[in-house]
Amino acid sequence: MAAEPPEGTHPDANLPVPEGATPEMVALGDRIYHGQVGGAPCTGCHGESGKGTPLGPDLTSRNWLWTDGSYAGIAKTIANGVPKPKKYRSPMPPMGGAQLTPDQLSALAAYVWGLSHPH
């Protein structure tokens, strides 16, 4: 049986970092993704581990529907949302429905990029 991660952390806490970001940004993005900062309930549609649900796509597969998968491309998709999904019934509102600051948006994009680039 696998050990549980320390409280307040997630198994994804040691993800790779895209060029132009920092490990601290990825860590903040993890907290944003999991609803601890910024009010973006990403897990509701993309799942706790980012592997997707019937409401939102898998963010770990590198099978991108709206971006080329680059750090900048992921940030743009988060910022703009997905008003008319290709494969899912629910749209993604801009910023995931939250009021993210530019730094929070960059951190979340770095985290999502890291999810799709495992070590």
Tell me about this structure:
It is a single chain. The chain is mainly α and 119 residues long. The protein contains 4 helices and no strands. The longest helix has 14 residues. The protein is globular, with a radius of gyration of 13 Å. The N terminus is likely disordered.
Outline:
By secondary structure, this protein is mostly helical. It has four helices and no strands.
- Summed over residues and divided by their number, the pLDDT gives a mean of 88
Largest sheet: none
Structural class: mainly alpha
Overall geometry: globular
Sequence of secondary-structure elements: HHHH
Counted by DSSP, the helix tally is: 4
Low-confidence stretches: 1-11
Determine Rg (CA atoms, Å).
13 Å
User: What distance separates the N and C termini?
Assistant: 22 Å
SSE blueprint:
Elements: H1 23-33, H2 43-46, H3 71-80, H4 102-115
Helix pairs in contact: 1-4, 3-4
